[in-house]
Specification:
8-stranded parallel sheet, binds zinc ion, alpha/beta, single chain, globular, binds adenine, TIM Barrel, 8 strands
């Protein structure tokens, strides 16, 4: 068994706010004069016991209140890159939730500039390349998403590579956001969306057919729908699967019962990602290690998952070639 930390990895499903470790949350709370509703780091960590997506989101939005300044976002991004690069991260496409910050009075530009500065320092320091994806909160009004898109277009378009859709899924189908996605496409932004995490396969079909996404975030519920699996494989539509997240949010009862093998068997372009690593107790390398263990994956299968991540990524062609060569070297070493 090869050392997984040295396998070059991408991650295409990573919420930067979900990398906020309790220690940093308390340090930022103190610096910014904000009271967290927990007495200690241990008490906050003890609250990371979730029943479903909503129970996680409640804590996720409450804790991110400590993020106030551009510097906070830079430090958050750097802390993530340091941990993930120690597990072999080579390229990351970072989600951020601007509405969760602008609604608290944090200026949009400070959020973007803080993350972008962290990513730039991270590229120098850890040789991790990156892209940035602005996510809309699907449980907020469409008007708020449209306003946020306008703000992005008029202030920081050059820093943003694509848009995504996240937050509470069931009851908020992708088609609600058709106009937002149409406008984003006209701006030249790339399109992804969370679909089929908790909601049925029909949400995945809507994300593809109504929003026109090129990648589906999670998408694990596709395993229930053989016709959809055939389509995903034929059209080479990547799924950004997050195994430990699925376990911790009780999308699956047990990692050994995760639909990943069925997705792979169907020929779907599956990638492995961490989602919200601070909350779910696992960075990208931990996710590879967990599926290796629970599903008895071979080194060849793990290398193929890493290759899928490169293929599904928005890295430059030279960077993709470099990473694919490094993965081949890992496998043949
Ligand atoms: N926001 C952060 N993590 C999320 C997830 N797994 N699903 C939906 N929204 C999210
Ligand atoms: Zn997510």
């Amino acid at each position: 068994m090869r050392d997984l930390d040295t396998l070059p990895k991408t991650e295409l499903h990573l919420h930067i706010e979900g990398t906020l470790e309790p220690e940093l949350a308390f340090a930022l709370a103190e610096r910014n004069g904000i009271a967290l509703p927990f007495a200690s780091v241990d008490q906050l960590r003890a609250a990371y016991d979730f029943d479903d997506l909503q129970s996680f989101l409640d804590l996720y939005y409450a804790t991110m209140a400590v993020l106030r300044t551009e510097r906070d976002f830079t430090e958050l991004t750097l802390a993530y890159l340091e941990r993930a690069s120690a597990q072999g991260l080579a390229h990351v496409e970072v989600f951020f939730d601007p509405q969760a910050h602008t609604s608290r009075g944090v200026p949009f530009e400070q959020v973007v500039d803080g993350i972008v500065a962290g990513l730039a320092i991270g590229q120098e320091r850890f040789n991790v390349t990156s892209a940035l994806i602005l996510c809309f909160l699907r449980d907020q009004p469409i008007a708020s998403a449209l306003e946020t898109l306008e703000l992005a277009a008029s202030t920081r378009l050059a820093s943003i590579d694509g848009i995504g859709l996240d937050s509470a899924e069931v009851g908020y189908p992708p088609s609600l956001f058709a106009e937002v996605y149409e406008q984003a496409a006209e701006l030249g932004l790339r399109l992804v969306a969370h679909a089929g995490e908790e909601a049925p396969p029909a949400y995945i079909v809507e994300a593809l057919d109504v929003l026109g996404v090129e990648r589906v975030d999670h998408g694990v519920q596709a395993a229930q729908d053989p016709a959809l699996l055939t389509r995903l494989a034929a059209e080479r539509i990547p799924l950004t699967v997050c195994p430990i997240s699925n376990l911790r949010l009780r999308v699956v009862d047990d990692l050994a019962a995760h639909p990943l093998p069925r997705l792979i068997e169907a020929g779907v372009l599956v990638t492995i990602n961490s989602d919200d690593p601070a909350y779910f107790g696992g960075y990208v390398g931990d996710n590879y290690a967990a599926i290796r263990e629970a599903l008895s994956l071979t080194d060849a299968q793990l290398a193929q998952l890493a290759r899928n991540g490169v293929e599904a990524s928005w890295a430059s062609e030279p960077r993709k070639r470099e990473l694919l060569e490094a993965i081949d070297l890992w496998e043949s070493a």
